[in-house]
Amino acid sequence: MSNPATPDTVFVTAQDLPVYCPGPNAPLWSMHPRVYIEVVKTGKALCPYCGTGYQLKDGEKVHGH
Prior knowledge:
The chain is an all-beta fold.
């Protein structure tokens, strides 16, 4: 089983791909350059700027990415 999610984990679905940070609802104070987060290969990843974790929801199947 994977490690438990951190409080700053954003759970995403296959429909949310491609995932990028900061997200569209991020507050202005938390803005940094937009980076795309690769969650397909391992199921989870961290933003290199702010450390926010992104994780595919359990049972999500990604096709064609």
